[in-house]
């Protein structure tokens, strides 16, 4: 069996997690990034007009929300951290610990589940004017520490993909 890289491992744990949202893993070789894009949907009340940050207005009674988390090399990646829900630096040569990736996916499930609920509220309550998904860094760090403290953190590293 071939050795897993970060992308293989991420895709495996996300598939095994049976996440209830659409997702895809993308490798941007030029930017030295690995992105996990995800999408959630909500049905709006009739005649509710929703405009996104780019000025696009929904044409049907369904709105779609997309966001991305990113793993990047702080030395080589030229990205805007504000463009992502969360961004995680890593060393291209050392790779990323499996326990770290496991915790990211666990938190992503929680954040997107809460986001789905908030999006549904936004889509059905005209009094709610904005929707934005939030990554709680404090909760993430706490979950990471709990995994380490309870010996459920896998220190084995997966490598950055080879060209």
Walk me through the structure.
The chain has helices spanning 6-16, 98-124, 137-149; strands at 22-28, 33-43, 62-72, 86-89, 96-97, 157-158. The radius of gyration is 17 Å and the shape is globular. Helix content is 31%, strand content 23%. Helix 1 (6-16) crosses helix 2 (98-124) and helix 2 (98-124) packs antiparallel against helix 3 (137-149). With 163 residues, the protein is of the alpha+beta class. It has one domain: Rossmann fold. Strand 1 (22-28) and strand 2 form a beta hairpin. The protein has a four-stranded mixed beta sheet. It has three helices and six strands, in the order αβββββααβ.
CATH architecture name = 3-Layer(aba) Sandwich
Q: Name the average pLDDT.
A: 92
* Domains, number: 1
Strand coverage percent:
15-25%
Order of strands, widest sheet: 1-2-3-4
CATH class reads Alpha Beta
Q: What is the quaternary state of this protein? A: single chain
The biggest beta sheet is recorded as: 4 strands, mixed
State the CATH superfamily name.
Answer: Protein of unknown function DUF3013
Contiguous runs where pLDDT drops below 50 for at least 5 residues: none
Number of strands: 6
